[in-house]
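call fold(seq) -> tokens
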Amino acid sequence: QVQLVESGGGLVQAGGSLRLSCAASGSVFSINAMGWYRQAPGKQRELVAVITSGSSTNYADSVKGRFTISRDNAKNAVYLQMNSLKPEDTAVYYCNAAIRSYFMTVGDYWGQGTQVTVSS
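ret:
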């Protein structure tokens, strides 16, 4: 069984910073792409940033220059450094990863979500 556990959300003032963390545990054999998504109230879930196994990255236009995604393959972890936060960044942030288990099954896994609230 594979799990993704997130941490690091919270309340911050506009212009502030937060760092989200997500670690995979369980029968993890390898991890391909890892990413962060977010969902604001009344809106669809959207991609924030993604990082491949080779550390290539891609960002939503709305966060380019402010957010940085990184990963630690030894820890099966992905991070999202969020700087210059804006009220419109308020959302529940979800970690996502494409994981191959020791049983050689491949699945798309999601974390439980962590709330990020940016006050104006």
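The chain has a mean pLDDT of 96.
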